[in-house]
Amino acid sequence: MTKYEPEMQKSAFPKLTEPNGLDTGPIPIEPYISPEWFEKEREQIFGRAWLCMGRIEQLPEPDTYIVKEIEVRGVIALITRDKADKVRAFHNVCSHRANMIVQDSAGKGSRFVCKYHNWAYRNDGDCIGVPDRANFFNLDIKKCGLTPIVCDVWEGWIFINLQKVPEVSLKEFLGPFGEAFTNAPAPSAEHAFNVNVSTMKANWKTTIDAFCESYHVPVLHPDTVGATFANDSNPYSRPLSGHARGAHRTMTTFGNPDYVPPEHALVERLAYSNLDLGNTLGANDAKEIQALLDHPAINPRRVPNWATEIAWIFPNFLIFYSPGGFFTLEFWPLSVNSTRWVARMHIPKAKDVRQRFQQEHHNCRMAEIFLEDVGNLERQQRAMESGAKTEIVLQDGEFMLRHSIETIRKWVAAKTVREALA
Ligand code: FES
Ligand SMILES: [Fe+2]
């Protein structure tokens, strides 16, 4: 942290854009609406960056697997944990006539059988069964294994890289972000569920941008979460800190310490009637939560009224650390103006009915907020595509968006990944 402290973070709401080495000019709209630009991103970013697939807890024991579709590259990744506990990734494609092998999104099993002609594979990738093998022509079963995808795990986060031989290691890709967030705990990671998987008619950057600035929160979410992210001392929900960290970035959002549910919000009042259970997710006593709060990169200025540490792992993965746990958002481009969005909660198992009620209320609230965002983003995308504007302007609290688009432009232009990371 010493790298960033103390000058730039001294005031209550420190400046973020210039101290992080960013320009202050307008940003071209083209990357948000241009099919040609999207093709460049497809190759230069999603074809070269390490892509976060989720948590190791999604593979809770040996012989479990998940399947992740990466439409922007036309890839269906089968990620396995084999008997030796090694996490591996493969293309989910049969070596016989290239059918898709695994058809569910997660499960348990040490072998996979293609449902077309029953070719079988072990979860370390080897082909272990070819029915009526004698009727093939010089078939070498050793060469019939699953096609591997490069895969690595950092701090329990699973990443893949779709280059045959990645130009940089995961460690180098994560760079200063990886250094700062080493040992950041992932409390209740084993108790996770998707609260949203949906397709939005908006560019992936339009979409992810909306979750990386709190400037809009009091305006767009007045009846849901607006009052928890702003108060008289911070009416525009300015961030409490923010750091560019290599290709990645993090930001601390403000939480209103005086927030109480309004009179008319009877369900919310009931849900939070026993606030000694802790923050919104009701994680009161987990040691892991304390370890999360103690981590130097989370709420790095140690301000009392923080709400969330947003970690944006380039290009498309967000981790929201909060006093109650963490959730993740993934934004997978489908086309220049459509995006698959996955929101996944990680919260403690409820100890009693009241805590469960509180958690359910929280999850419903999240769904409400997300709906408010979705409608807004689809309108924004249509308006951007109208051609009325060629640029957008960003304020200081939107520094993450600026750092993102600058990083994207760098990656699109760079001949090598190392050049993009420089
Ligand atoms: S395509 Fe998989 S067994 Fe034939
Ligand atoms: Fe929002």
Question: What does the model show?
Answer:
This is Phenylpropionate dioxygenase-like ring-hydroxylating dioxygenase large terminal subunit. Keywords: 2Fe-2S, Dioxygenase, Iron, Iron-sulfur, Metal-binding, Oxidoreductase. The chain has two domains: 7-47 and 176-421, Naphthalene 1,2-dioxygenase Alpha Subunit, Chain A, domain 1 (Alpha-Beta Complex); 50-166, Rieske [2Fe-2S] iron-sulphur domain (Rieske Iron-sulfur Protein, 3-layer Sandwich), CATH 2.102.10. A seven-stranded antiparallel β-sheet has the order 2-11-10-5-4-3-6. It has a seven-stranded antiparallel β-sheet with strand order 12-18-17-16-15-14-13. The chain is 24% helix and 26% strand. The chain is globular. It starts with 26 loop residues before the first strand and ends with a helix. It is of the alpha+beta class and 422 residues long. It has ten helices and 19 strands. Bound molecules: FE2/S2 (inorganic) cluster (FES) and fe (ii) ion. Fe (ii) ion (FE2) is lined by residues 210, 216-217, 220-221, 373.
Could you give a short account of the major beta sheet?
7 strands, antiparallel
Beta percentage is 25-35%
CATH H level, superfamily name of the largest domain: Naphthalene 1,2-dioxygenase Alpha Subunit, Chain A, domain 1
What is the multimeric organization of the chains shown? single chain
Using DSSP, what is the number of strands? 19
SSE pattern, N- to C-terminal: EHHEEEEEEEEEEHEHHEEHHEEEEHEHH
Tell me what the CATH architecture of the largest domain is: Alpha-Beta Complex
CATH class wording of the largest domain: Alpha Beta
| Overall geometric form | globular
The largest sheet has its strands arranged as 2-11-10-5-4-3-6
Tell me the structural class: alpha+beta
The level of helicity is 10-25%
Indicate the CATH topology of the largest domain: Naphthalene 1,2-dioxygenase Alpha Subunit, Chain A, domain 1
Hetero groups in this structure are:
FE2/S2 (inorganic) cluster, fe (ii) ion
Mean pLDDT: 91
How many helices? The count is 10
Low-pLDDT segments, ≥5 res: 1-9, 276-284
The value of Rg in angstroms is 23 Å
Number of domains: 2
Q: Between the first and last Cα atoms, what is the distance in angstroms?
A: 20 Å
Cofactor: Fe cation
Domain Rieske: 50-160
InterPro entries: Rieske_2Fe-2S, Rieske_2Fe-2S_sf, Ring_hydroxy_dOase_asu_C_dom, Rng_hydr_dOase-A
GO molecular function: 2 iron, 2 sulfur cluster binding; dioxygenase activity; iron ion binding
